[in-house]
Amino acid sequence: MAHNRDYKPEDIAFPNQAITESELVGEMEKSYIEYAMSVIVGRALPDVRDGLKPVHRRILYTMYESGLTSDKPFKKSATCVGDVLGKYHPHGDSSVYDAMVRLAQSFSMRYMLVDGHGNFGSVDGDPPAAYRYTEARMSKLSNEMLRDIDKDTVDWDPNFDESRQEPRVLPSRFPNLLVNGSSGIAVGMATNIPPHNLKEVINATICVLDNPEADLSDLMEHIKGPDFPTRGIIMGRSGIRAAYATGRGKMVLRARTEFEEFGKDRIRIIVNELPYQVNKRQMIKNIADQVKDKRLEGISDLRDETDRNGMRIVIELKKDANAQVVLNKLFKQTAMQTNFSVIMLALVEVNGKLQPRVLSLRGVLDEYIAFQEQVIIRRTRYDLKKAQERAHILEGLLIAQDNIDEVIHILRTSYSNGKERLMERFQLDEPQAQAICDMRLISLQGLNREKLEAEYEELEKKIAYFNQLLASKEMLRGVLKEELIAIRDKYGDDRVTEIQDVEDEIDIEDLIAEEQCVFTLTQAGYIKRTPVSEYAAQSKGGMGKKGITTREEDYVVDVFTASTHDYILFFTDTGKVYRKKGYQIPESGKTAKGTNIVNILQVEQGERIQTMLHFRETSGKELFLFMVTRQGTVKRLPVQALKNLRNNGIRALRLDEGDELVSVRETDGTMRILIATHDGMAVCFDENDVRPMGRDAVGVRGIRLREGDYVVGAARAAEGKTVLSITEKGFGKRTPVEEYRITNRGGMGIKNYMVTEKTGPIVGVKVVDGSEDLLLVTQSGILIRTHVDTIKQCGRATQGVIVMRFKEDGDKVISLALAEREEAAEAGEEQPKE
Question: Within this chain, do residues 642 and 788 fall inside the same structural domain, yes or no?
Answer without folding.
Answer: yes
